[in-house]
Structures are given as C-alpha cells and as structure tokens.
Amino acid sequence: MSEVLDLIIVGGGPAGLTAGLYASRGGLKNVVMFEKSVFGGQITKSSEIENYPGVSEVITGLELMEKWPEQAARFGVKQEFAGVKRISKIKDIFHAELEDGTLLKSKSVIVCTGSNPKKSGVEGEEEFYGRGVSFCATCDGFFYRNKEVAVLGGGDAALEEALFLTNICAKVYLIHRRDEFRASPATVQRVKKNAKIELVLNASVKKIYGDASGVSGLIIADKEGNERDLKTPGVFVFVGMKVNNEVLLQEDGGFLCEMSKGGEVVVDLNMRTSLQGLFAAGDIRINAAKQVVCAAGDGAAAAIGAINYLESWHE
Ligand code: FAD
Ligand code: NAP
Questions:
Q1: What pTM, to 2 d.p., does this model score?
Q2: Is the domain of 113 the same as that of 252?
Q3: pLDDT for 54-90, tens place per residue?
Q4: Domain ranges, residue 209
Q5: CA-CA 20 to 30 A from 306: which of 70, 135, 218, 280?
C-alpha cells in the first residue's frame, strides 16, 4: 500500500457521486470511490421522485440515478465495488481498511455513507424479514399484487410508499402511532384522498405473526388497548433512517472526528469535519435535510473543500 491517493470517497449515493464528479473535474487525478451496494444510493429504492429540480416528470429513484456514475466516471474518478471497514489517520495520512482486508492510503477522505432504514422493534419484524416484512415497496410491492398490505410509519417515506403500493395492491392500511403526520402536507393530502388507503391512527403494532410460509397478519392496538387483527401478508416498515457512521469508529471505541449525539458527523458549511482533510456529505452529516438535491450539493461542497485542502498539501 505504498501509493498515496489524493482522495478516497466512501459511498456512491448522490453525495458521493457528486463529490467524485467535482473532485475529478476539478483536477484531482487520483480519486477512488468505494460503494458496497448500489451506485446511486438509497434513492434507488424509492418508487417515485418528483422534487429533483429540473426533472419535472415523476420518475423512479433508479431512473434518476442511472446516469450519475457514468457522468462522474467521465472525468476520471475510479469507482470500486467494495465496502470500507474503517478510516483512520496516522500523522497526515488517512488509512482506509476495506472489508476484504485491503489497505489504502490517501491525503484526504470524504465520507458519504448515508443512512439505512431503522427497524421498528416490533415482535415478528426480524423473524419475517424477507418473508412478508419489507423495507422497500419498489422491490417487494409486486409480491402483493391485488392483496392487502400494511405500511407502518408517518413520515414522507411511509406515505409516499403507501401511495405507490395502491397502484399494485387491493388495499393499504397505513398504521401510525399518532394522529399527525411528519410527511409534507401535499403528500398527506394525497394520502387522505386515496380511497385505497385506510388510515389507522394512534395505533401500535403488537406483533407481526405468520408461519413457515411467511407473514399472515399483524395485531394492532389503539390507545385504549383495543386490539384488531389485520390479515395482511405484507408489512412495509418505514419508521425513519439510521446514519451509517461505522467507518469512522476507531479501535478504541471512539470516533475519528466530532459527532453529534445522534451519531451524525459534525461539519461546517464547507463540509469540513473537526479533523483536517476529512469531509462528510449528505445524510451522514449533522442537520442534513435528507434530500437528494441537498446530498448532491454537500458532495460538491466537500469536493471543493478537498481540492482546496490539497492545494496546501506539503509533500
Ligand atoms: P445514500 O443515498 O444513503 O448513499 C450512501 C451510499 O453509501 C449507499 O449506496 C451505501 O451502500 C454506501 N455505503 C454505506 N456505507 C458504506 C461503506 N462502509 N463502504 C462503502 N459504501 C458504503 N429524497 C428526495 O430528495 N426526494 C425524494 O422523493 C426522496 N424519497 C425517498 C424515498 C425513500 C423510500 C427513501 C428511503 C429516501 C428518500 N429520499 C428522498 C431521501 C434521499 O434518498 C437521501 O436523502 C439521499 O439518498 C442521501 O444521499 P447520500 O449520498 O447522503 O446517502
Ligand atoms: P421520518 O421522517 O423520521 O419518519 C419516521 C416515522 O416513523 C415517524 O412518523 C415516526 O413517528 C414513525 N416511527 C418512528 N419509530 C417508530 C416505531 N418504532 N414504531 C412506529 N412508528 C415509528 O422518516 P422517513 O419517512 O424515513 O424520512 C427520513 C428522511 O428522508 C426525512 O427527512 C424525510 O423528509 C426524507 N424523505 C423525503 C422524501 C421527499 O422529499 N419526498 C421522501 C422520503 C423521505 P412520529 O412521527 O410519532 O415520530
């Protein structure tokens, strides 16, 4: 591992791909991006996106992201399919340990590892994951064609994916623990107008049950404890996201840079972390708006920050 790269980008979602585009187009020669799952990031799992500026038609997340890797590659960023286990820093050099044990060195790093769906903790969620419990309507909605399904959550993801499921399923129970939604008002209106969605509010899920073939239904309860049995073979869980900060975790149990109480990376307006040469962009950073356009903007700012940092690099 003698070569020292200019920049390592961890994560190939909207933030990472934009950082790669800006860094390589901005003149950095030795830029490598690592993505462990799908180039395009979590939005590739979304059934529709209608708020990316300049794209006025409603398209899927996969369609939105299709050309981003190719555009970034045109300017020279190397895109590798690999998971990064840990980033550490020894003197002025960052060390990246890949999940397969490979070690790389770099002068700067941008962490764009985004976030992943949270689990609700409901009984049966773990047991039936992949057998009736899903975190992705685009991926699994088709299995419930003309059947009834339940959606858990009250944010943008739950409501938007519930709407998507009405195109495929006979009926969607939208189960939320309060009677007010976190989702944007326009989406709430669309949900309320959709005859295929039954709102089940102020309700908690007691358990998801089934047998060897998968989910058979779920038991919900209202605030008074009255229970109801919904016999749906599919349960979609959208109860928020958890940031992927593991790459910054050090062997001593601390983090490489300052983090918020919620585990997000603390950055300034230029996406600089508390550690020189280390940047963070997108959903992983503190106060992220958790939007594709914002993640892309962060990625661009972080790349410009890295270019400036490397201009004053001493050999
Ligand atoms: P991510 O998209 O999460 O990308 C991070 C990438 O890093 C992932 O591909 C991951 O595999 C990779 N990674 C993580 N750890 C490692 C590692 N150790 N090594 C290598 N790679 C790693 N936003 C909107 O603007 N409009 C919408 O309509 C919208 N709809 C949404 C619908 C759903 C269902 C969801 C879940 C999100 C939606 N969002 C929407 C939010 C949007 O997807 C995110 O804000 C955006 O994707 C964040 O981009 P990111 O690059 O920061 O992170
Ligand atoms: P979110 O906004 O955090 O909403 C999570 C929802 O799940 C909340 O309604 C919450 O209830 C509920 N919840 C949390 N834990 C629960 C549990 N254990 N059991 C039952 N319910 C639980 O998450 P999200 O919808 O995934 O969105 C994440 C981010 O991405 C947000 O910033 C969102 O705006 C963004 N996003 C944007 C778009 C878009 O722009 N179109 C689309 C999708 C996502 P309470 O309300 O009671 O807390």
A1: 0.88
A2: yes
A3: 999 989 999 999 999 999 999 999 999 999 999 999 9
A4: 133-237
A5: 70
